[in-house]
């Protein structure tokens, strides 16, 4: 696997690949890789000639400096996982390579930025769009792969691609789960054994509403979900919502796709999860 640390290296590599007629798949990450990330590499390998991944813990998307400080960065283990997964190249830049000191960024994507995660983490999605736009410009991928666990992020990036006319296809890949149902996340390493057990209420609640879903009983199921979350020790629910799968506004009878989304603090760790309940 080739490892690049500068923009110019990656650009030259990508330009040569395109000149050779190769289709580039891109998997951007913040590292602390788990099987969810590696499933994106697998999807990219199945659809593209060359797979490039990035590992960059992006400071502009963290609304809490302490959260940025404690974000895991096991780079050697990550490199080993990417090599074993068949990734062709890694872009692992420093912050100074990605940002000049006084950069300004703002892209108006409407209310999508302020719903759910956006309400809980103001400014987060501007930081996400800022770095993903930079990465797309550097890597020039044909296809980029993202996980469904960050459902809202996928919609945000899709909106950015549309508004800026970026020539890339986006693919959303299914959530990878532990055998007990917990959505795989880089943040799971912060869960104590007790936290981990309590965190299972998120996927259990989502599965319950999915199994019992119909478009007439959303208010009842939402109340049931909040009750289950509030009764679980050590869990503080941030939101539970049935949302339109295209807009993330509250779902109604006419929403073509409906997704149930949840966020909660478990111990000191904030987790998110979702399931598509109707399509």
From TrEMBL:
Q: Which residues bind ATP?
A: 30-37, 147-150, 184-187
Q: Which GO terms describe its molecular function?
A: ATP binding; pantoate-beta-alanine ligase activity
Which residues does UniProt mark as catalytic?
Answer: 37 (proton donor)
Pathway(s) annotated for this protein in UniProt: Cofactor biosynthesis; (R)-pantothenate biosynthesis; (R)-pantothenate from (R)-pantoate and beta-alanine: step 1/1
Top-level EC class: ligase
Q: Which residues cross the membrane?
A: none
Residues the entry annotates as binding (R)-pantoate: 61, 153
Instruction: Note the Pfam families from the entry.
Output: Pantoate_ligase
Which reactions fall under this protein's catalytic activity? Answer: (R)-pantoate + beta-alanine + ATP = (R)-pantothenate + AMP + diphosphate + H(+)
The catalytic activity of this protein is classed by the Enzyme Commission as 6.3.2.1
HAMAP family hit by this protein: PanC
Protein name (database record): Pantothenate synthetase
Organism this protein belongs to? Mucilaginibacter limnophilus
